[in-house]
Amino acid sequence: MFKVIGKYGEIVFLTEKESAIIGYYMTGMKLQQIACRTGIDVLKIRYHKRTVMRKLGVKSNKDLILWFIANRPSFSLEEREG
């Protein structure tokens, strides 16, 4: 699990898969490209992305990108929990 800070300052735990998908998404990859890269169905990729957005308290792709920019150092350097 990865520990990050949500939109409202709360601690949020992301699974390794969720973290990887968001990391790929933030590099500019499309959901279909992420699906090909990970071997996970594109519908599952979409589901995991939406789950992360819900956990973080963001409602749009724009908000997700803004969250990532604001939290990039902690997102990429965060140690796994448990």
TrEMBL record:
Cited InterPro entries: Sig_transdc_resp-reg_C-effctor (IPR016032), Tscrpt_reg_LuxR_C (IPR000792), WH-like_DNA-bd_sf (IPR036388)
Domain HTH luxR-type: 7-72
Pfam families: GerE
Keyword Oxidoreductase: no
Keywords from the named record: DNA-binding
SMART domains tied to this protein: HTH_LUXR
Molecular-function GO terms, alphabetical: DNA binding
A Gene Ontology BP annotation from the UniProt entry: regulation of DNA-templated transcription
Alphabetized SUPFAM superfamilies for the sequence: C-terminal effector domain of the bipartite response regulators
Coiled coil: none
Protein name: HTH luxR-type domain-containing protein
Source organism per UniProt: Pantoea ananas (Erwinia uredovora)
